[in-house]
Amino acid sequence: MSQFNNSRDIEESSSTSQSIHLNDRKSDKLTAGQTEITHPVDIENPQPPPQDGKIHDAVWGTIDEDGPNYRNLGWVRASVLELKTQIGLGVLGLPAVLDTLGFVPGVIVIVVLAIIITWSDLVVGYFKLNHPEVYTVADAAHIMFGPWGREIIGFAFWLEVVAIAGASFLSISVAFNTMTEHAACTVVWVVVGAIIVAVFASIQTLGRISWLGWVGLISILSAVVTLMIAAGLTDRPSLAPPGDFEIITQVAATPSFVDAINAISIVVFAYAGTPNFFNIVGEMKDPAQYSKSVVAAQTIITMIYLIVGCVTYHFVGQYIASPALGSAGFTVKKVTYGLALPGLIVGGTLYAHTAAKYVFVRILRKSRHLSKNTPVHYIVWFSVVTFTCGIGFIIAEAIPFFNDLLSLIGALLGTLICILMEAYMWMWDNWRAPNRGSRKWNLMMAMNIIFFAIGTFLMIAGTYAAVVVINDNLNSGDSGSPFSCADNSGN
Fold it and tell me: Where are the transmembrane segments (predicted)?
């Protein structure tokens, strides 16, 4: 990875701080490193580094005992958070992707998108080392595109993570409807899910909620493993018709363009945790360990996706439920949703926390209240958490079709924030690199241009396909309607 260090000279100054000195674009980059800024950074007017021995961060300012420690993540806990921000809702849509595309095309799509988005995740870390003042993708957009870029990309980022949180509320309502046999109006269950998520999301630092990542990871994995085992043992999938039936699996299917693009968009959604990775590297003790956490997390998540998708599709075939946990029979459905419920809550918590933290930092970034236990600090924090979950609730109820909502988020927002931005970030940071024109530089530039082109196509085509399907479902009324009390569990 030496090519990423050609335009900077990184020198370690202590075990907890780094000073990063950049050689070009000095108007856009700080001359002090991530742990050497006296107070929340003003990007246009960076401050000189202090020498008081305290932890000073380019985003959080001075971190001491008079406030939460926003720099306390190790690489292992970072990997767990990266895993949990992705495994959850996405994995529940992957068996349906294989049903639409077939085994071989489906596996190829999963692997290719895993490679592209793993690269995007790595670029987040490289960009953070070059620009320590970055905490979200909106900060990166500000550096590259100015104030308007920050507002546009920042809104897209915020909307994506809020929409994913909303999708988790929808999945939580399905779980409650399944386990209680629709004991209450579905809107009530969505509200319950939003309230539970809001309570956990209000915990202020990622370090303090990292233990929830373990809970969520174990929860979802136990649910999908139970699903796979039950699917192999059951004689009749839950969606199979009465009487005789035949399970059909295809090596390669022949879907329509709209169905194929929607399936690919679900895979993009399954890897759409990249926005959270900005926050994770921003709260790590040693950001240089970030790449290690990404490689570990993405390797594990891709293996899980392939195993869960292929095994479930093999045993259930065309009778895949949406979400997939309801595929193996009524009793097993209750068990799997019971096991998955903590994981669904944790997934919503991480995304709601990220969305709220973005607004929180934007409001208080140049204020002492950002990292101090003041009344203003708490009022702003709890207000933005409540607002975030409220918007997520509206999204969940406005588009109450699980796979269609995943497709729309993946196509419209996932491709922009998880592919296009990171490809451009690498090109922007390396356009004037000293090794420009070398074979390595040419190959890397070509790769990022190709990734950018793929992301652009998927965003345009995927958004069109998702809108077509959502419109058809709304008009037909067969799949429910907005703000409906109807049972969404398929019982």
Answer: 87-119, 152-176, 183-203, 209-233, 294-316, 336-356, 376-399, 405-428, 449-470
Classify burial at 34, counting beta carbons within 10 Å of its beta carbon; exposed 0-12, middle 13-18, buried 19 or more.
buried
Other beta carbons within 10 angstroms of residue 133's beta carbon come to: 24
Place of tokens 């190790």: 74
Side-chain-side CA neighbours of residue 27 (13 Å): 2
Q: Helix or strand or coil: residue 480? A: coil
pLDDT digits over 475-484, tens only?
776 556 677 8
Reading the block at residue 384, the tokens are: 């933005």
Residue (of 158, 186, 282, 209) closest to 488 by Cα position: 186
Domain ranges for the chain, please list them: 73-476
Which residue type occupies 51? Answer: Q
How far CA 33 is from CA of 55, 134, 261, 429, 438, in Å, comes to 12, 12, 43, 17, 29
How far apart CA 90 and CA 410 sit, in angstroms, is: 10
Q: Which amino acid is at 367?
A: S
Rounded to 5 degrees, φ, ψ at 240 are: -70, 145
CB 149 within 8 A of CB 142: yes
Helix (H, G, I), strand (E, B) or coil at 313: helix
With bands split at pLDDT 50, 70 and 90, how would you rate the model's confidence at 29? very low
26's tokens: 């000095």
Q: What is the CATH number of domain 73-476?
A: 1.20.1740.10
Q: Where does 234-329 have alpha helices with state H? A: 257-270, 274-282, 290-316
> What phi and psi, each to the nearest 5 degrees, are found at residue 66?
-90, 35
Cα–Cα distance, 114 to 301 (Å, whole number): 9
